[in-house]
């Protein structure tokens, strides 16, 4: 009888501890999420500071829309001195379009504006698909974890496809801006960016881990800022990836007025209507 009581008492306290630990973790995560999601990015940065832009590409329409946006915004390679294009394994179409954009569109823009032929640098990084077509849902979690880990390596500049990103012109491997318009890979990339920012936030709270970690630089307020652009085809409802990433993206841009002001929950930043961004 006494042994039975002891075992149940131990089980009760173990369950209580696990519950408190889980609740504390969730509360800390939600607080950090809300704080960082609603934080204001500094409105100035030193002139001529190089900007590292990371673009998440998807197959077919997502890639076509993305490069239409980049052409329309007249991307200046002298400011965005390094561009990283993230594609999923097997997506040769997106990789080819990235090369065409770099070797044709950007060079034509430089020649048209009569600017020095300094196009900066770019890299195309291939990450595993989170879920392949017709893949079993039983094995999908494992491939998703593999994709997520690969995205973490990309954001830290440690992916095998990346050249060394540390240089006098680009002192940190972390991208400044992450731009995506909704392919499935974007979910892993933005969540990985949020995890890294949460890590640095918690390091700041507990005053540990600041400075260099595992050979990489500390994170600045300008880095790992995420911009999600909802597809032009989404007129009344958000896409599945958009619904998943609405509470995580720093800015969520929509191209139709019917989607303006949508929020994940009260108190969070809402979607921003900016009009058509594609040609």
UniProtKB/TrEMBL annotation:
InterPro entries: Oligosacch_biosynth_Alg14. The chain crosses the membrane at residues 12-34. It holds the Pfam family Alg14. It is a single-pass membrane protein. One of its GO terms (cellular component) is nuclear membrane. Belongs to the ALG14 family. Heterodimer with ALG13 to form a functional enzyme. Involved in protein N-glycosylation. Essential for the second step of the dolichol-linked oligosaccharide pathway. Anchors the catalytic subunit ALG13 to the ER. This is UDP-N-acetylglucosamine transferase subunit ALG14. It comes from Aspergillus carbonarius (strain ITEM 5010).
């Amino acid at each position: 009888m006494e042994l039975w009581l002891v075992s149940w008492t131990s089980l009760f306290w173990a369950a209580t501890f696990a519950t408190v630990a889980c609740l504390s973790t969730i509360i800390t995560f939600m607080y950090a999420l809300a704080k960082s999601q609603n934080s204001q990015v500094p409105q100035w940065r030193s002139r001529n500071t190089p900007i590292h832009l990371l673009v998440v590409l998807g197959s077919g329409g997502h890639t076509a829309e993305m490069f239409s946006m980049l052409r329309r915004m007249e991307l200046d390679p002298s400011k965005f001195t390094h561009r990283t294009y993230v594609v999923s394994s097997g997506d040769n179409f997106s990789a080819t379009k990235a090369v065409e954009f770099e070797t044709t569109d950007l060079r034509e823009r430089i020649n048209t504006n009569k600017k020095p032929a300094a196009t900066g640098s770019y890299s195309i990084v291939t990450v595993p698909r989170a879920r392949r077509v017709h893949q079993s849902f039983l094995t999908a979690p494992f491939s998703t974890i593999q994709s997520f880990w690969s995205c973490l390596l990309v954001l830290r500049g440690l992916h095998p496809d990346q050249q060394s990103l540390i240089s006098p012109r680009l002192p940190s491997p972390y991208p400044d801006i992450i731009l995506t318009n909704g392919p499935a890979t974007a979910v892993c990339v933005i969540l990985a960016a949020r995890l890294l920012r949460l890590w640095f936030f918690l390091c700041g709270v507990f005053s540990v881990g600041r400075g260099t970690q595992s050979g990489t630089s500390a994170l600045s307020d300008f880095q790992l800022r995420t911009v999600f652009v909802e597809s032009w085809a989404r007129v009344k409802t958000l896409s599945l990836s958009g619904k998943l990433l609405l509470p995580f993206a720093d800015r969520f841009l929509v191209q139709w007025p019917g989607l303006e002001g949508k929020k994940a929950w009260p108190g969070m930043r809402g979607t921003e209507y900016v009009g058509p961004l594609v040609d």
